[in-house]
Design a protein that fits this description.
The chain is α+β, with helices and mostly antiparallel strands. The protein is built from two helices and five strands; from the N terminus they run αβββαββ. The protein has a single domain, classed as 2-Layer Sandwich (HIT family, subunit A).
């Protein structure tokens, strides 16, 4: 999608600090980190929200979590623990309409979330 900031990051058209790239998934550092480690895992293909996922996307969603597992190990937060969050639409706080899995760690996480 031409006006999507995360599509542009995936395509290398705007800068981001990428920590993992595969054929299907890109993981990069959040611009406004909410924890010592705050990464975003996105599919290269534009999907606006969780509501737009199709049955055929099951493998792709799994790849986002496998990427999270990888970068959590790389960042040294796998053992201490980390949180993965995917917000869906405005009521949940989604501001960028290209699905992304937040990966947050390096500090204690409270529950319930705000
Ligand atoms: P959400 O509110 O769940 O849609 O999360 C969007 C996230 O994208 C926020 O945490 C932003 O800080 C982050 N973000 C927005 N633009 C960029 C960018 N250009 N590079 C890295 N992170 C970004």
């Amino acid at each position: 999608m031409t006006d999507c900031i995360f599509c542009k990051i995936a395509a290398g058209e705007i800068p981001a600090t990428k920590v993992l790239e595969t054929d299907d998934v890109v993981v990069f550092r959040d611009l406004n980190p909410q924890a010592p480690t705050h990464l975003l895992a996105i599919p290269r293909r534009h999907i606006a929200t969780i509501n737009d996922l199709q049955d055929d996307d099951a493998g792709l969603v799994g790849k986002l979590y496998l990427a999270a597992r990888q970068v959590a190990a790389d960042e040294g937060i796998a053992d201490s623990g980390y949180r993965t969050v995917m917000n869906c639409r405005e009521g949940a706080g989604q501001t960028v309409f290209h699905i992304h899995l937040h990966i947050l760690g390096g500090r204690p996480m409270a529950w319930p979330p705000g």
